[in-house]
Each structure stands twice: as structure tokens, then as C-alpha cells.
Specification:
Elements lengths: L10 H4 L10 H4 L4 H10 L4 H12 L5 H4 L4 H28 L11 H20 L6 H25 L3 H22 L6 H26 L22 H29 L6 H29 L2
Helix pairs in contact: 6-7, 6-8, 6-12, 7-8, 8-12, 9-11, 9-12, 10-11, 11-12
Pfam families: BaxI_1
Keywords: Membrane, Transmembrane, Transmembrane helix
Organism: Microbacterium yannicii
Length: 306
């Protein structure tokens, strides 16, 4: 189920038995409580011991700090912290992009966009490939900062071309994330193996199409005319292909969020260490940034075609 987002390609989010390899084993994750209770009954422990066991079940559940284990609430706070860093980076990227814009030089700088994209890509690979051995929050915070630089730079770039587009894309992104989270929390939507297979096939197809489109744009092929290449071409009813395909991609990104939420819940059930909450936040950030960029591009294509 974690194949969609490499951040969750870790035994902590997939293998229920992985808890056995964590420090403290199943007892530290409170997974052995039922066994202890049953053993106490069968061994005929005295009333005081039985009362202590019953009191353990009646007591409020321990949080992530007390248990050292991953929890949904702790992961939410870690995720919010990462997005706060991304927001600061986005402001810096926006200011940097617009700093050199003057009437004599109306072109914004693409340096924040390029540096943020490259730095974020490199750090994401480092985080993904080292997470099996050790979770390094500093690297994840670094990724959030670079990704913020990229988001701020590209947002400023599009805002100069289409005034108000950033607000539109932000509201649309928050709406999709909010609705997806609400539906998942209510149990109305869940990840399934069949849907995930379809999702993975669609992702591969979209990736291949994107690479072809970029190649046509680089070589300035006539078929790829327009600022967005093939995506700028008109489709059914005069609607640009970028808008039609973009809507489908947004649906894929929303399903990717469902998979992310599901993987986090699985990590909690598996008794993953608390530090894996950073990896959960990282995975959600990857998906949300992807969703925002796609929505930003959809709106840009739609507005440029008018």
C-alpha cells in the first residue's frame, strides 16, 4: 500500500511484525497487555494483582511521549511543524523571486525555484533511502525549507502572470485536503488493493506522458505548441487537455492522501517508534505540495486559454 509514496516504503508502516524489532519489543508498545491479563487469570493471581491489571485498562491511554510510540495526534503536530517551516521558506522564496523585478527588468528570478526544487529532490532521496536505518528530523526539516523555497518561487512566478492565482490554488488545495481528511476520518473512503493498483498504473502513465511532454517542449516540437506543451492543446468542447488531465491528477493526488493517512494509521497499529511521525509528516508534505502544484498549473492553463 505504500508504493505510491516512497516515504512510506518502510516496514514500520507495512509489517505488523516489525514492532518486534523496535527497542522494547511488543511490551513497550502495550501489545502484550492482553496476553499478560489472560495469564494472570489462568494463574489465579490474587485480587490485588487482578485489580492492578484492571486499573491499567481503565486508566487513560498513554500518549506518544509516555510510550515512545507513534500516535496520530503526535504525527499531526509534527506535520504542522513541517508545514510551518515550509511556509517560512515559501515567504523567503517569494521575496527572493520578486526582489529583482523592476520596470526595466520585469522578469522574476528563477533561482529560488531552481534551488528549492534541486535541494528538495536531493534531500527527499536522502530521507527516503536512510529512513530504514534511522529517522533524521533535521533532514526532513531541511527538505521542508527547500520545498518552501520552491513553492514560494514558483508561486510568485505564476502570480506575476495571473494575478490572484496563488490564492485560488491555495484555497482549492486546502479544500481537497480537508474534504479528503474528513471522508477518511468518517470511514467513507478507504484504500483498497484494487484501487491502489489502478492508481499505480495511472501514475506510471502520467509520468511517461509528462516526460514526453517535457521532451517535446525542450526540442520545440510543433505539436507541443503553447506554454504548457501538449497540455495547452484544446480537447473536447474546447477545454485544454491540461485542465482535463489535471482534474484526473488531482483525484490521484487525493487518493494518494488517503494512502498516506492509511499508512500512518498502520504505523500506529504496528507500534512504530515516535520518531516515525516525522516520516509520516514528510510523506503528507510530499503529496500536498504535488497537489498544490497540479492545481496551480490547472488554473494557469484554464486562464491562459481564455
Amino acid at each position: 500500500m505504500a508504493l505510491n509514496n516512497p516515504a512510506f516504503n518502510n516496514p514500520a508502516f507495512q509489517d505488523p511484525k516489525a514492532v518486534q524489532t523496535y527497542p522494547g519489543g511488543p511490551q513497550a508498545a502495550n501489545l502484550g497487555a492482553q496476553t499478560q491479563f489472560a495469564t494472570a487469570q489462568s494463574a489465579g493471581t490474587d485480587a490485588a494483582a487482578q485489580a492492578r491489571l484492571e486499573g491499567m485498562y481503565a486508566a487513560p491511554p498513554a500518549g506518544a511521549v509516555e510510550t515512545g510510540r507513534m500516535s496520530v495526534e503526535d504525527t499531526v503536530w509534527k506535520t504542522l511543524g513541517l508545514f510551518a517551516v515550509l511556509l517560512v521558506g515559501a515567504v523567503a522564496g517569494w521575496i527572493w523571486t520578486m526582489a529583482g523585478v523592476t520596470p526595466a527588468n520585469p522578469d522574476p528570478s528563477i533561482a529560488p525555484w531552481a534551488i528549492g526544487a534541486l535541494g528538495g529532490f536531493v534531500l527527499s532521496l536522502v530521507v527516503i533511502f536512510t529512513s530504514r536505518k534511522k529517522i533524521r528530523p533535521a533532514l526532513i526539516f531541511g527538505y521542508a525549507a527547500f520545498e518552501g523555497l520552491f513553492v514560494g518561487g514558483i508561486s510568485a512566478f505564476f502570480e506575476m502572470m495571473f494575478e490572484g492565482i496563488v490564492l485560488q490554488a491555495t484555497l482549492a488545495t486546502l479544500s481537497v485536503v480537508g474534504v479528503t481528511l474528513a471522508l477518511f476520518a468518517s470511514g467513507k473512503i478507504r484504500a483498497s488493493k484494487k484501487a491502489t493498483k489502478v492508481f499505480l498504473i495511472a501514475m506510471v502513465g502520467y509520468l511517461v506522458f509528462s516526460l514526453i511532454n517535457i521532451g517535446l517542449m525542450i526540442f520545440n516540437a510543433p505539436i507541443a505548441g503553447g506554454a504548457f506543451g501538449l497540455l495547452s492543446q484544446k480537447g473536447p468542447l474546447g477545454i485544454p487537455w491540461g485542465v482535463l488531465i489535471g482534474v484526473f491528477v488531482v483525484i490521484m493526488a487525493a487518493y494518494s492522501l488517503v494512502l498516506d493517512f492509511d499508512n500512518i494509521q498502520q504505523g500506529v497499529r504496528n507500534g512504530a517508534p515516535r520518531q516515525y511521525g516525522w516520516l509520516g509528516g514528510f510523506g503528507i508534505m510530499v503529496t500536498v505540495v504535488w497537489l498544490y502544484i497540479e492545481i496551480l498549473r490547472i488554473i494557469a492553463i484554464a486562464r491562459s486559454s481564455n
